[in-house]
Design goal:
heterodimer; B: 32% helix; 29% strand; globular
């Protein structure tokens, strides 16, 4: 198993563990990275040209973010499988990306309900990727 | 096309199919994301929204080379704290909450084919849509009159 895929799996387990321990902000951090690491793994292993292009663009233009660009490229590859699921995945991942940054850096409380929503998003993200891409 | 034009056109695409949608827009610079919130939840979940959603995202990606558009609902993690453009079907009022957006969006709001009238308040500006007017009028900001009228 790829180390990146293993880290994604570990972060997913950590999300459940941290929610159980009522450590909500760290749970959100791990939940996001569980999804992001799986996306990066798929790009590197299945669509390496896409990943190289992203890195090259960021280096040359110094514009855009690695995370945003990876999510966009991944969704582009996912979309032919199922347009509805792709839109849901895009919506969930961008929602989670923004919320993770707020959770990590803003002086805001993270509530149990937020952590439970994150768990739903993480589970659905992994489910949809498995369902269509078999990863 | 600038971002305000893009947002107004996106609102129109949604309202063409879902005239009763409450649509709110807010940009988050920290994550370079343009959030478009749709209410009620059924609009996002409707099968017809899939094509509109992708059309909006594809247009964004064709025009802008960074950032992204993210659709939100009441179920989302991110909740808008200060939307800058709102289209509310219940009151037939569209609010634009910053003056630069008003100026830049003003021309495009003509496409709603409506009177655009905004009451200047301390914290926000409200644009009232009225489909019976056809001329542009903007009252003098220094006249002491706190009401602006702009008909499209």
């Amino acid at each position: 198993m790829s180390f990146l895929l293993k880290k994604s799996d570990q972060n997913r387990h950590a999300t459940d563990f941290l929610i159980d321990k009522m450590l909500y902000a760290p749970a959100i951090h791990c939940g996001y990275y569980s999804c992001f690491q799986k996306i990066v793994y798929i790009l590197i292993d299945y669509y390496p040209d896409d990943y190289d292009f992203i890195q090259q663009q960021i280096k040359e233009r110094r514009k855009g973010s690695l995370h945003g660009s990876c999510i966009k490229a991944f969704i582009g590859r996912f979309r032919p499988f199922d347009r509805r699921d792709a839109l849901d995945l895009d919506t969930m991942l961008n929602d989670l990306k923004g919320f993770r940054i707020n959770s990590d850096y803003n002086d805001d409380e993270v509530k149990p309900a937020d952590a439970n929503k994150v768990k739903e998003i993480v589970d659905k993200t992994h489910f949809l990727i498995k369902r269509h891409m078999k990863v | 096309m600038n971002i305000q034009q893009f947002v107004i056109e996106s609102f129109e695409k949604i309202k063409n199919l879902f005239p009763h949608a409450l649509i709110e827009y807010q940009y988050d610079e920290d994550v370079d994301t343009h959030y478009i919130k749709l209410s009620p939840l059924g609009i996002y979940e409707d099968d017809s929204f899939v094509d509109i959603g992708w059309a909006i995202k594809d247009t964004y990606n064709e025009i802008f080379d960074s950032g992204d558009v993210c659709f939100l609902t009441d179920k989302s993690l991110i909740q808008l704290t200060a939307p800058t453009i709102i289209s509310d079907p219940e009151t037939n009022i569209a609010s634009v909450n910053d003056i630069e957006t008003i100026i830049e969006a003003g021309e495009l709001l003509r496409r709603f084919d409506t009177l655009v009238e905004f009451d200047w308040k301390e914290s926000e500006t409200v644009i009232v849509l009225d489909s019976f007017q056809s001329n542009l009028e903007v009252s003098d900001i220094n006249s002491g009159n706190d009401k602006y009228a702009m008909a499209a």
